[in-house]
Amino acid sequence: MPGQPEPFAFFGRYLEVTPPRRLVWTNEEGDDGSVTTVTLEEKDGKTHLVLHDLYPSKDALDAALASESTGGYPEQFVQLDVVLADAE
C-alpha cells in the first residue's frame, strides 16, 4: 500500500504451480484466509490475467473488505506492468 514504511508480509503456501499458466496459493493470516488463483492466457498476442480470491465464508469476505486488505491489487498490477516493461 502506498506510504507504508515496511513491505507487506505474506503468509501462505502454494497449492498449484503450472508454468506458465496458473498459480494457486493460500493466504493464511488466520482461520479466514482466502485462496488466490491466477491464470494467464494468450489472447490476440497479449497476456490475459485473471485473478480470483475464494473466501471460506461470506463473513470472511466481509471482514477482508472492511479491513481494506483487498485494496492492494491495483498497485500490484501497476508494479507488474513496470517489471514486465523493464523485461522487454
Could you please describe the fold and organization of this structure?
The chain is an alpha+beta fold. The protein has a single domain, classed as Alpha-D-Glucose-1,6-Bisphosphate, Chain A, domain 4. Helix content is 28%, strand content 32%. The chain contains 2 helices and 4 strands; from the N terminus they run ββββαα. It has a 4-stranded antiparallel beta sheet with strand order 1-2-3-4, with no helix packed on it. The two termini are 26 Å apart. The model has no long low-confidence stretch (mean pLDDT 86).
Q: How many helices?
A: 2
Mean pLDDT: 86
- Give the total of beta strands: 4
Largest sheet: 4 strands, antiparallel
Percent range of helical residues: 25-40%
**CATH homologous superfamily heading:** START domain
Any idea what the radius of gyration is? 15 Å
Shape: globular
What's the arrangement of secondary structure elements?
Elements: E1 14-18, E2 22-26, E3 35-43, E4 46-54, H1 58-67, H2 73-87
Antiparallel strand pairs: 1-2, 2-3, 3-4
